[in-house]
Amino acid sequence: MSVTIYAPASMGNVGVGFDLLGGALAPVDGSLLGDKVTVESAEQGLELVVVGHWANKLPANQDENIVYQCAVFFLEHLGQEVGLKLTLEKNLPVGSGLGSSASSVVAALMALNEYFDQPFSELQVLKLMGDFEGQISGSVHYDNVAPCFLGGMQLMLDTPQAICEPIPTFKQWYWVVAYPGISLSTARMRGLMPEHYSKQTTIDFGRYLSAFVHACYKQDDKLAIAVLKDVLAEPYRAAEIPQYQQAKSALNELGMLTTGISGSGPTLFTITDDAETAQAAKQWLDEHYIDPQLGFSHICQIDDLGARRV
Questions:
Q1: Any idea which architecture 174-301 has in CATH?
Q2: Quick one: which H or E segment has residue 6?
């Protein structure tokens, strides 16, 4: 028996919702932007094979690979020792702001759960994903793993009843994402943010996020764009991302509706409701923002499917 799971790239924060909002991404050309993990039987022990475009950026020692660690973590919770071979197809760059580690974790844990005939419920698997991501980053954040696993745009609730809930999205929006080709440490980018914020900044954060969610339910795209502002992270991170400020200004001149940082960067996202403008933005980013040898850009919409068998 063999199970292969694809887990899409995701945008944490979505600008306006630091640690509380995330969206899964699907390129409009039908290509898959995310990692795949295959689980199959082996005679004994755990074996990991790593392939894919970004395989050479991962640790050579399998014990240091998060997919291998996921398998150990999962089997401990399952209370079994069995032989397994895992294959990671690494299609997302590490430290990109596209939920690279979340994609690997989600694909691995969902594949393992499917392989063992779903011993854990969807909520239990999501909690395992969050707990494991927390071990990697030092604290539990669901804004990448939740949309990657469940699809759509997810609002983090963190209540006893629910970890997150999907919110309506704007089907007419194109999300152009551009990864310039450099990696930025999430821990370092979090470290740039202050420990404390002014009262006005916290009020603005709450106002913009609540207004954005309200606009999503009303399907008021003009209001949503007007309040899609990042007052917590971008003011402190923007200068650390080469050419980000110039790109934001140029994209505004091209007619894009708004631009922000995906996750902790360096990937940016920029939004339009016009396909031609999206194509023009992609072309500008290809020519001016990304390293053609290392970076990439995609015109995307929100991926409603989330992680799935392929």
A1: 2-Layer Sandwich (3.30)
A2: strand 2-8
